[in-house]
Design brief:
The protein is mainly α. The protein is built from 8 helices and no strands. 19% of the residues are buried.
Length: 273
């Protein structure tokens, strides 16, 4: 009995210690619970604020999105219209270019015919004058304007003028030579260099006419030169079809020409373009 009474105070102290510890833990738990509740309240406030912002901003965002979609559709529609107009204008430009080329080709053909008619008129006029002289009993002068030495000197002077780019003097000299004696050994060369004068001045239409006259001289060695330059002249004025035709003619009729590779290359380039 004495031992039990003796141990009782210690037992009570131990229980008080346990109760005190439990009470302290309870206080800590309460404080932690309050702190957690405060956090939950703050989160709820933030959620409520976000929901409010969402309710306000969502309709605005949807309206802005719809407007953006509408603007994009309008832009696409405008872009499509612009592209269609550009395509239409491009087609019109191509048609105009084709018409221009056709008109250039037609004008050149007419010009060629006019030159031929003019030459025929000159021939007929000369024939008429000769007939008039025969009827009147006047002797006909068959002497050429230049003798061989004079012809050669004039030829060299005209060629020198061409090399010095004095085209006016060169044209005058060569024209005088080809009109004075078509049988001279230098007549075909004179005709060729006359054409070169116009080619060098970028008068390609007149150059074509003069180059074509080179073929009227029998036995000329300037025919392949002239054929190449005719093709290049048509190419320079943008008449691609005629250029192809002339380059092909050089390939077909002058297979041994030094200009054969040039014609092949030019024809290839035109086919690529």
């Amino acid at each position: 009995m004495i031992n039990r009474f003796y141990c009782l105070p210690y037992t009570l102290l131990f229980m008080l210690a346990i109760l005190s510890s439990a009470h302290a833990q309870a206080k800590d738990s309460v404080r932690e619970l309050k702190r957690l509740n405060a956090k939950i309240d703050r989160v709820r406030v933030m959620v409520d604020s976000l929901e409010l912002d969402n309710q306000i901003l969502l309709p605005e965002l949807m309206a802005a999105f719809k407007q953006a979609v509408k603007s994009k559709a309008q832009q696409d529609s405008i872009t499509l219209v612009v592209l269609k107009r550009i395509n239409t204008l491009s087609n019109k430009i191509n048609n105009l270019e084709n018409q221009s080329r056709y008109m250039d080709s037609t004008a050149l053909e007419i010009f060629n015919k006019l030159v031929l008619v003019e030459n025929k008129i000159v021939t007929l006029t000369n024939s008429y004058n000769e007939m008039a002289k025969l009827k009147s009993g006047e002797p006909l002068s068959m002497e050429p304007k230049f003798n061989a030495a004079q012809y050669k000197n004039t030829y060299m002077e005209s060629l020198g003028a061409f090399q010095n780019q004095n085209f006016a003097k060169a044209i005058s000299g060569f024209e005088e030579l080809v009109s004075s004696d078509a049988t001279n050994d230098l007549a075909d060369n004179s005709q060729y260099w006359l054409a070169e004068c116009f080619y060098s001045q970028k008068d390609f239409k007149r150059a074509i006419i003069e180059f074509e006259k080179v073929f009227t001289y029998a036995g000329t060695d300037k025919d392949d030169d002239a054929q190449l330059k005719i093709g290049l002249s048509y190419q320079s004025i943008g008449n691609v079809d005629k250029a192809r035709e002339e380059f092909q003619r050089l390939i077909d009729y002058f297979p041994g020409s030094e200009y054969y590779p040039k014609a092949k290359e030019s024809l290839k380039q035109l086919s690529i373009n």
